[in-house]
Amino acid sequence: MNVLNCKELSERIERVRRENPNTRVDCYVLFASHTDAMQLYELARQRGFNARISTTPRQARSSCGVALLVDCQEACGVWEAAGESGMPFEDIVPLPN
Predict the structure, then answer these.
(1) Which residues touch 31 (CB under 8 Å, ≥6 apart)?
(2) Who has greater pLDDT, 89 or 3?
(3) Model-level pTM?
């Protein structure tokens, strides 16, 4: 399920938080290629987001084994930055840690 807009992403994050009380929720940006992941990583860091490269968790389906791990509070900002810059990604998936 791809993220269509920031409101939908926020709703998905909140749903995962409700389903997993007292558990930290991480957001994973998924990609078709590691090159796309590295490009968005660089952009996110340039814009001041706390992001790091991670392996894609088993619970998240992706074409590539590399994901960008971002704070869920910054996920909408990363989504907007990617859209403004035309950087492709497959989805942003909130998962309990």
Answers:
(1) 37, 40, 62, 63, 64, 66, 67, 68, 88, 89, 90
(2) 89
(3) 0.91
Which tokens in the block code for residue 60? 């998240």
Query: Is residue 79 predicted with pLDDT exceeding 80?
Result: yes
pLDDT tier for residue 97 given thresholds of 50, 70 and 90 = confident
**Cβ distance 74 to 14 under 8 Å?**
no
Show the 3-state SS of the chain.
CCCCCHHHHHHHHHHHHHHCCCCCEEEEEECCCHHHHHHHHHHHHHCCCCEEEEECCCCCCCCCCEEEEEEHHHHHHHHHHHHHHCCCCCEEEEEEC
